[in-house]
Amino acid sequence: MMQSELFLDVRYYETDQMGIVHHSNYVRYFECGRTDMLKKAGLPIEKIEEAGVMLPVVSVECRYKVPARLGDILKIVSIIDSLPLAKLTIRNEIFNQDNQLVAEGKVVLGFIDADSRRPVRCPKMLTEFFEKHI
C-alpha cells in the first residue's frame, strides 16, 4: 500500500455564504492529495507526462460525511492499494482538525499515449515505480 498525507487550510473562496466548503472543491482536494503523493514519492505528474503518458480522470466518487468549514485544516489522505494495469485507482479520505471524517471517495485514472491520445496499459516505467512503493 502506498499512502500520503497533505494538510490544507480551507480558503475563503472555497466556501459558500454559510462558510461551508462547496461540494465541488472535494474533487480538487483529491487532486491535490494524489499530486502531492506522487511528488513526495519521486514521480511528479510532469515527469510522467514527459515520458509520453497522460493520466485522464475516468471516474470520481465522493461521499460527504460532515461539512468542512472556513478555518478548518484538512488532512487529505491518498491511498493506492493495488498495482495499476489499465487503470490506477486512488482512494481518498479527508479529515478535519478534530479527526472527523469529512469526505471519502476514489478517483480512477486511465493511461493514454500523449501523442496518439489512445488508451494504453500502465507503462512499464510506472509499473516498476508502483511495484517499489506498494
Structure description:
The protein is an alpha+beta fold and 134 residues long. The protein has one domain: Hotdog Thioesterase (Thiol Ester Dehydrase, Chain A), CATH 3.10.129.10. It has 3 helices and 7 strands; from the N terminus they run βααββββββα. The protein has a 5-stranded antiparallel beta sheet, with helices on one face. The protein has a two-stranded antiparallel ribbon with strand order 2-7. Strand 5 and strand 6 form a beta hairpin. The longest helix is centred in the N-terminal third of the chain and has 16 residues. It is elongated and about 45 Å long. The termini are close together. The model has no long low-confidence stretch (mean pLDDT 96).
Give the SSE map:
Layout: E1 2-9, H1 25-40, H2 45-50, E2 53-54, E3 57-64, E4 73-80, E5 87-95, E6 101-110, E7 112-113, H3 124-133
Antiparallel strand pairs: 1-4, 2-7, 3-6, 4-5, 5-6
Keywords:
alpha+beta; Thiol Ester Dehydrase, Chain A
Instruction: Round the mean pLDDT to the nearest integer and report it.
Output: 96
Count all strands and give the number. Answer: 7
Strand order of the largest sheet: 1-4-5-6-3
CATH topology: Thiol Ester Dehydrase, Chain A
| Gap from first CA to last CA | 4 Å
Helix and strand sequence: EHHEEEEEEH
Domain count, please report it: 1
Output the number of helix runs.
Answer: 3
Classify the secondary structure makeup into a structural class: alpha+beta
Biggest sheet features: 5 strands, antiparallel
Beta content comes to: 35-45%
Q: Give Rg in angstroms.
A: 16 Å
CATH hierarchy: architecture? Roll
CATH class: Alpha Beta
Indicate the overall shape. elongated
